[in-house]
Design goal:
Elements: E1 28-33, E2 58-63, E3 68-70, E4 76-83, E5 89-97, H1 104-114, H2 122-126, E6 130-134, E7 137-145, E8 151-160, E9 163-172, H3 173-189, E10 191-193, E11 218-220, E12 228-231, E13 240-247, H4 254-264, H5 275-278, E14 279-281, E15 290-296, E16 299-308, E17 311-319, H6 321-324, H7 328-336
Antiparallel strand pairs: 1-2, 2-10, 3-4, 4-5, 5-9, 6-7, 7-8, 8-9, 11-12, 12-13, 13-17, 14-15, 15-16, 16-17
Length: 340
């Protein structure tokens, strides 16, 4: 069996739909109702205050008989997989993130970087889109193929006031090419039903995650592009907080992330040759995971990036050095713990 690297964004995994030819098999109609917890959103790391929490929407769709529905991740609302005749694989997911309208060029380039392709200019990136209808809404479709392996991604993106929807078909290029039209037909069958707004008091409670949260941390409503946020114990007048974001890619790689964090601390950017002296592995049991620790005067940040399946999990402990220091070990243990 050929195992292919899954590719997701900015967030964050986005949607994929994978299908084999229907032949004479009959389609199955299935209705998916997500649990009544807050929508899995990626929210921008700003200081603008909590973003409103929304319950997960309900989805209904017609599923071709040859698809295999698999458990959805914390981020996706529905997931499927299919095998080709020789064991090739492709995957499908449906994901709603925070509204990323206006970021389409960045989304295209994130996927391109994930398969080893160079980034395009904004104009060239936007030329990759073609119109598509999804769930009764106008959307855009783009395709990306890897040069180094037989991997192809077909993604449909729909922006609406409630967020951005990603429908993604990815996997072995032969399977994806064979299933593209069936994927497009599947998009026509999707129906989305929004459910009633949850009470604001529930914003800090999220049953999707079962990680090891230190008992002294206090859950808080996530801000933009965050899926979780915690206040750590104050030390006198010193305070700090922990935030967690999830993206469908590594958002540009270690150097880009390191310099982005350094900018938040008002530190100078570093070069690729300096990365190894500033970054160390978080945990050998989590391949590709990294840990950084940076301080600038009255602000310190301990950050971790952990690849898990199709997603990259970004953890950040940030605040006054006096409040960050006693929580570093607990933060590392928290970042190592599985969210599921």
């Amino acid at each position: 069996m050929v195992i292919l690297k899954s590719v997701s964004s900015v967030v964050i995994s986005l949607a994929a739909v994978v299908l084999l030819s229907l032949g004479c098999k009959k389609e199955q109609i299935r209705v998916y109702t997500a649990p009544k917890d807050t929508v899995p959103q990626q929210r921008a790391e700003t200081e603008s205050g909590p973003a409103p929490s929304r319950p997960r929407p309900q989805l209904s769709y017609k599923t071709p008989a040859h698809w295999k529905e698999v458990p959805a991740s914390e981020i996706s609302l529905a997931s499927f997989k299919v095998e080709g005749a020789k064991g090739e694989e492709a995957n499908v997911s449906v994901t709603q993130l925070t509204n990323l309208e206006g970021k389409d060029a960045e989304i295209v380039n994130m996927w391109r970087q994930q398969v080893g392709l160079e980034a395009l200019s904004r104009d060239e990136a936007l030329k990759q889109f073609q119109p598509v209808q999804v769930a009764g809404h106008k959307g855009n479709l783009f395709e990306i193929s890897s040069k180094s392996e037989p991997l192809k991604i077909v993604t449909a993106v729909v922006h609406d006031p409630g967020g951005s929807w990603f429908y993604k078909l990815s996997g072995d290029i032969a399977v994806v090419d064979k299933e593209k039209q069936t994927f497009l037909d599947f998009l026509q069958t999707i129906q989305v039903k929004e459910v009633t707004q949850v009470h604001a008091a529930d914003e800090s409670h999220d049953d999707r995650f079962h990680w090891n949260v230190p008992p002294s941390w206090k859950a808080a409503a996530p801000k933009q592009m965050q899926v979780a946020r915690f206040q750590v114990p104050e030390q006198g007048n010193a305070s700090a907080e922990v935030s967690v974001s999830v993206f469908p890619g590594d958002t540009g790689g270690t150097l880009a992330n390191l310099n982005r964090w350094r900018k938040q601390l008002q530190l100078n950017e570093v070069k690729e040759s300096e990365v190894s002296s500033l970054v160390k592995p978080l945990d050998p049991a989590l391949p590709g995971s990294i840990l950084v620790d940076m301080t600038n005067n009255d602000k310190r940040m301990v950050g971790a990036i952990v690849p898990r399946g199709e997603q990259y999990w970004f953890y950040k402990l940030m605040g006054a050095p006096a409040a960050v220091a006693p929580e570093k070990d607990a933060f590392i243990g928290f970042a190592k713990s599985k969210p599921e």
